[in-house]
Write a structure and sequence with these properties.
23 strands; mainly beta; five-stranded mixed sheet; eight-stranded mixed sheet; disordered C terminus
């Protein structure tokens, strides 16, 4: 049995081991099995080339396949991942575009058009413009080179950082949510993007979250917005947004992406990292194309059955992990000073 001094020394020598053990203990009960045939119940991305998965979109053309991409420093590539195995079944190389800077989002619009949001700003919102790429989703899943259309995007109220982009499944209109710690705005693009000149996006509704990604339900009625530690479900309401409640977001290392499953019944949440997990939750809306089921949040603090406390375990777990991280960080700093 270790004395107090020996225990403190052991803790300071093994902060990462302790953190890993704490995370496993606190999140084990929330894990989702990755055994579903179509991947809608979760999977792990196995491709070693995908280390910064920052966007996720469920294919409508190929059931059970999810499109993703790296954040930056990778190139103009998109990856099609089989949700049943976690393996990459196709890598697309985009031509007709410049060198990507900070690719943060992906969404599929009408006619199986893929939209890629090169909308991040690693310079803190100082780039005068960002880009959106559009390409047809291939009918065959194989490595291929695909020509994309590049659109120049500017904001009516100045440059900003963003990681969330959605395309309305009925109208094809593109929307962006900027990333602000105190909450940002939903920005609406032109009715149709133009490859000639600038496409100016204008704020149309506030978003009460530091957003890292967003997704529209397949019927266009619901918007899911996620951050690092939580999420919000909005009724789309023509883009005016009506808050409906909180989302049940899994605790992840760096939660960067979200998509509805192709049938709208599930929300899948992705994270950056090697062999990063994609975790599944019931989507709000009752499984009617907007998604959902009993575990989805209908109101803040209650589930759809009216039961309170559904978020208590998740919030408590997140707080506990935050405490562990803070303690370990403090011990590590102390060790460095010593």
């Amino acid at each position: 049995m270790k004395c107090a001094g020996q225990w403190q020394s052991w803790v300071m020598r093994r902060p990462l081991a302790l953190l890993a053990a704490a995370l496993l203990t606190l999140t084990g009960a929330l894990a989702v099995p990755a055994s579903a045939a179509d991947g809608d119940d979760g999977f792990a991305i196995k491709d070693p080339r995908i280390t910064e998965s920052s966007g996720l979109a469920a294919s409508r053309l190929h059931p059970g396949v999810y499109w993703t991409h790296n954040d930056s420093d990778d190139g103009p590539y998109l990856y099609a991942v089989d949700g049943a195995t976690g393996e990459t079944v196709a890598r697309l190389t985009l031509t007709g575009v410049g060198t990507p800077r900070d690719v943060e989002a992906i969404s599929i619009g009408p006619g199986n058009k893929i939209f890629v949001g090169d909308i991040g700003d690693n310079l803190g919102g100082s780039w005068p413009y960002v880009w959106i790429y559009e390409l047809p989703e291939p009918e065959r899943l194989e490595d291929a080179t695909v020509r994309a259309t590049q659109y120049v995007v500017k904001y009516s109220d100045g440059a900003r950082d963003a990681e969330s982009m959605v395309v309305h499944p009925k109208t094809g209109r593109v929307y962006i949510i900027d990333k602000k710690e105190e909450g940002g705005h939903l920005y609406e693009g032109p009715a149709k993007l133009s490859a000639e000149g600038d496409n100016v996006f204008r704020p149309v509704a506030p978003v009460e979250l530091w957003a890292t990604d967003a997704a529209l339900s397949p019927d266009g009625q619901d918007l899911a917005v996620r951050g690092y530690f939580g999420g919000i479900h909005y009724a789309w309401n023509g883009g005016k947004l009506q808050r409906k409640g909180r989302l049940s977001v899994p605790l992840q290392g760096q939660g960067e992406s979200v998509t509805y499953s192709a049938d709208g019944s599930r929300l899948l949440f992705g994270s950056e990292g090697t062999e990063s997990p994609v975790e599944s939750r019931e989507a709000p809306g009752g499984g009617d194309g907007g998604g959902g089921g009993r575990g989805a949040r209908a109101e803040d603090g209650k589930n759809t059955a009216g039961e309170e406390g559904g978020d208590t375990v998740k919030v408590g777990g997140a707080v506990a992990v935050a405490v562990v991280v803070a303690i370990l960080f403090g011990l590590t700093r102390r060790r460095r000073r010593d």
